[in-house]
Design a protein that fits this description.
By secondary structure, this protein is mainly β. It contains 3 helices and 32 strands.
Length: 364
């Protein structure tokens, strides 16, 4: 029995040791070779003269920079972080990449993830023939060239809470002759969206601030489309008391979207993504705002509301319903008189039955 326990213990120690090997501390530029390895940067890298500082050469690897910065010397063609084409499912996490690189981060493999990072460079981020890239809570800033260059980007790409600040020549660019799919939610873009002579492509900006007053400031040709979208946040309240109205009928419609729903107990109707603007081929602009918004409450004297709203994510769109101006609280009382009388009748019946029961009990 003791021998079996000893063997089991050695097995567990060996298993733990294997797990420990998978986490490696580094403090210099490194070729990140190996599958499933986590690489932990333990200090800033200053004035690196490497052509590329961090190179992924394995699958399911993680580079945790722990907030440290990878710095270069401004050499032409240099890269702060890059993936090899034969690597995939890799993660760049918590990394600072300085502006002293020709390209801050270069991605040429599929199914990768960038999170909680601050990336600079002449061109901050460049993807080449990439499928399925996700980015969370990351800034592309200090880019002296373009913020995000797509030399092909396909598949399911999701960029959440991404901020891009690159005003010359462009914040987001799809290179001529490529197909690009850019999908941002809760992000910020400072600069131009340039889809020049692409084969096919879309740029979807949902609940994201774009410093241009209209998407027409982008340069889009050859079948590419920019969609500017917002998630609705609609609430219906009593115009006099400010109390939420539940069960109100809410509709909105534009040339691109339509929606119908009932408000919940808090007065809100289920959210919906609405297209505010669309730009096609640089010459066709569709402006779907303002939207027509209606609200009503069946079975009441509330006056139905109809008006126009421009959804822009800046605040809740609150609709106030009012009783007619000639209406008084006496009218409201009359509206509910039947319910009040019915309640009194039920109460009277209960009192009569209780009295009869008490009388019979006394006779016993």
């Amino acid at each position: 029995m003791n021998k079996k326990l000893g063997v089991l213990g050695l097995f567990l120690l060996g298993f733990l040791a294997m797990g420990m090997v998978q986490a490696t501390n580094i403090h210099n530029c490194t070729v990140l070779t190996g599958n499933g390895v986590t690489w932990n940067l333990t200090s800033d890298i200053v004035n690196s003269t490497n052509a590329t500082c961090m190179i992924f050469n394995g699958n399911n690897a993680v580079l945790n920079c722990n907030g440290y910065t990878i710095d270069g010397v401004g050499t032409g063609g240099s890269k702060g972080i890059a993936t090899y084409a034969n690597s995939s499912n890799d993660t760049i996490n918590g990394c600072g990449v300085s502006s002293d690189w020709a390209t801050g981060v270069s991605i040429i493999s599929n199914n990768n993830h960038i999170a909680d990072s601050l990336i600079s460079g002449e061109d901050c981020l460049v993807t080449t023939a990439v499928t399925n890239l996700t980015i969370d809570d990351t800034e592309l800033t200090g880019c002296t060239g373009t913020g995000f260059i797509m030399i092909g980007l396909a598949g399911t790409n999701a960029f959440t809470n991404l901020e891009i600040d690159a005003r010359t020549p462009a914040a987001i660019a799809c290179v001529t002759g490529n197909a690009c799919s850019f999908n941002m939610v809760d992000g910020t873009v400072y600069g131009t969206i340039a889809y020049a002579a692409v084969t096919t492509g879309t740029a979807n900006l949902q609940d994201s601030y774009y410093n241009k007053s209209r998407v027409t400031n982008g340069n889009v040709v050859s079948g590419a489309v920019i969609n500017y979208k917002w998630t609705t946040d609609i609430k219906v309240v009593d115009g006099k008391s400010g109390n939420a109205i539940s069960g109100a009928n809410v509709t909105y419609y534009t040339a691109a979207d339509s929606f119908y729903g009932l408000t919940n107990a808090a007065g809100y109707v289920a959210s919906h993504v609405v297209t505010a603007q669309k730009l096609v081929n640089s010459t066709k602009t569709y402006d779907y705002m303002p939207a027509t918004l209606t609200a009503s409450k069946t079975g009441t004297n509330y006056v139905a509301y109809s008006g126009t709203h421009t959804f822009d994510g800046s605040a809740t769109d609150t609709i106030s319903l009012y009783y007619p101006s000639t209406s008084t609280y006496f009218d409201v009382f009359i509206d509910n008189l039947f319910g009040i009388l019915f309640g009194l009748l039920v109460l009277a019946v209960i009192i009569i039955f209780v009295a009869m029961y008490i009388k019979e009990m006394k006779q016993l």
